[in-house]
Amino acid sequence: MSPYSSSAVLPDPAARRERAKERLYVFCQSGGWLLLLALQFFFSYAMAPGKKHTAEELWSSRSLVTLVIAVAWLTTHYTRLLIHRRGWKELGWRALTPRILATASVQSALWTFVAFAYPYAVLQMPVPPNTPLVPWIAITWINGVLVFTGWLCVYFFYHLFDRYNRLQIEQLRLAAEVKEAELRALKSQVNPHFIFNALNSVRALIDEDPARARLAVTQLANLLRYSLQSAQAETVPFEDELRVVNDYLALEQVRHEERLRLRLDIAPETLGLAVPPLVLQTLVENAVKYGISPRPEGGEIQITARCEDGQLRLRVTNPGELDTTPSGAPRRSTGVGLSNAAARLRHFFGHRASLRIHAEAASMVVAEVSVPVQAARP
After folding, report:
1. How far apart are CA 39 and CA 31, in angstroms?
2. Rounded distance between C-alpha atoms, residue 24 and residue 365, angstroms
3. Would residue 340 be called left, alpha or beta, if left means φ above 0 and alpha means ψ between -120 and 50 degrees?
4. DSSP-derived 3-state class of residue 356
5. Distance (Å, whole) CA 191 – CA 231
6. Alpha-carbon gap, residue 131 to 373, rounded angstroms
7. Average pLDDT over the chain, rounded to whole?
8. For residue 335, what pLDDT band results from cuts at 50, 70 and 90?
9. At CA 11, angle to CA 7 and CA 17, rounded to 5?
10. C-alpha–C-alpha distance, residues 278 and 235, integer Å
11. How many helical (H) and strand (E) elements, i.e. helices and strands, does the chain have?
C-alpha cells in the first residue's frame, strides 16, 4: 500500500494518550512496590546491625517480605481492573470514600492473611515469645488499610486530574466550535445585506444607461466574488477591502450622481495590513444610506486609514446628525450591519479592537474602527 493511499491511517491522539497512560501506570505500579520492598529490606537489617541472622532466617524473612509485596502488587493491579469495569473513576468523592475504605479493608485482610499464614502455617515458624498474636494481626491489618487507602487515593487523584483536563479540553473545543458557528452566522447576515443594496443600484441603471449597466454588472460581480471568497477567510488585505468599497461606491454614484462625493486619505503602509472582511464596506454602506441618501444636496464621504500606536485606524466621515439607539446604531437603521461588524471585531481581536460612531462636529458623523496592526496572510 502506498504511504499516500487514502486508506492510510494516521495515529489517533486518543490512542496515543491511552498508551502513554498505560506505560505511566506500569512504571508507577512496579516502581512503587519495588521501592517499598527495598525499604522493607533496609529497615529489617540496617536498623538492627548487631543482630546475627542464620541463612535460614534470612531466606525466610526475605521470601516473606517479597511474597507480601508481590501479593500487594497483584491485589492492587486486579483492583484497578475492577475499578475500571464498575466505572468508579467517574464517581465523585462522596460515592468513592466508602468504596475506597471497603476495598482497602478487603485488600489488607488478604495481605494480613498471607503475612501470617505463610510463615506460621506453611513454614511452621514459631511464634515469637511474649508476642500477643491478635493485637499483632490487628496492627498489621490497620497498616495494610493505610497503605492500600493511600494507593487508591493516589490512583483516583490522578484520574480526577485527568478527567478535569479532558473536561477543559472538551470545553475549549466546544467554545471554538460555537465561535466558528457564530462567525459563519454573522457572515451569512452581512453578505446578503450589502448585496441587496448593490442590486438596487444595478436595477436603477438598466433603463437609463445600458453601457453603464454592463459596467455596473462587472462591479457587482466583483462584489459577489469578494463576498464568496472572504466568507472563507478571517482577515483580508486592506487593499482588497478598499478595492471592493470602491466598486460599491461606483455603483452608488450611478444612483446618486453628483450628490455622492468621495475623498480618500490612505497611508500606503496600511494597504498590506489585515482587516476582517466587509468591515469597511459596512461602515461605508451605513454612511451612504444614512448620511447621503436622506439629504437632497448629498454630501462627501471621506475614508481615512492610518497606523498609529500599533493600531490600524479606519475613519469613515459623512454628513448627518447622530441620532442613535442605546446600542449605538443609527435610530432609523436596523443595526444589523454595524452590530455584526462589532461582533466580528470582538471575535477576531477581543478587547484589542473597537468600533464606535460619534459626532465630530456640527452635521458630521464619524465611524471609527481600530484593529491591531498585523500583516495580511499571502
Report:
1. 12
2. 65
3. alpha
4. strand
5. 8
6. 82
7. 77
8. low
9. 155
10. 10
11. 8, 7
What's the rounded Cα separation, in Å, for the pair 205 and 313?
35
Q: How much of the chain, in percent, has pLDDT values that exceed 70?
A: 75
CA proximity to 235, closest of 377, 121, 352: 377
For residues 151 and 100, give the distance between their C-alpha atoms in angstroms, rounded to a whole number. 10
* CA–CA distances in Å: residue 85 to residues 80, 90, 131, 243: 9, 11, 42, 64
Q: Residue 29: is it exposed, middle or buried by C-beta count within 10 angstroms (0-12/13-18/19+)?
A: middle
Which residues are within 8 A (CB) of 176 and not within 5 positions of it... i.e. 6 or more apart?
Answer: none
62 phi, psi to nearest 5 deg: -65, -40
- Is residue 378 helix, strand or coil? coil
305, 270 contact by CB (below 8 A): yes
Which contacts (CB < 8 Å, 24+ apart) does range 208-217 have? 209/254, 212/254, 216/250, 216/251, 216/254
pLDDT tens digits for range 95-144: 888 888 998 898 888 888 877 776 766 666 666 666 677 787 788 888 88
Pairing of strands 260-266, 299-308: parallel
Task: Say which residues have a Cβ less than 8 Å from residue 291's Cβ, sequence separation at least 6.
Answer: 299, 301, 318, 319, 320, 365
Q: The whole model's pTM is what?
A: 0.50
For 144, counting Cβ atoms within 10 Å of its Cβ (0-12 exposed, 13-18 middle, 19+ buried), the class is: buried
Q: How far does CA 160 lie from the centroid of its chain?
A: 20
Chain centroid to CA 219: 40
Length of the chain: 378
CB 248 within 8 A of CB 193: no
Distance CA 334, CA 192 (A): 14
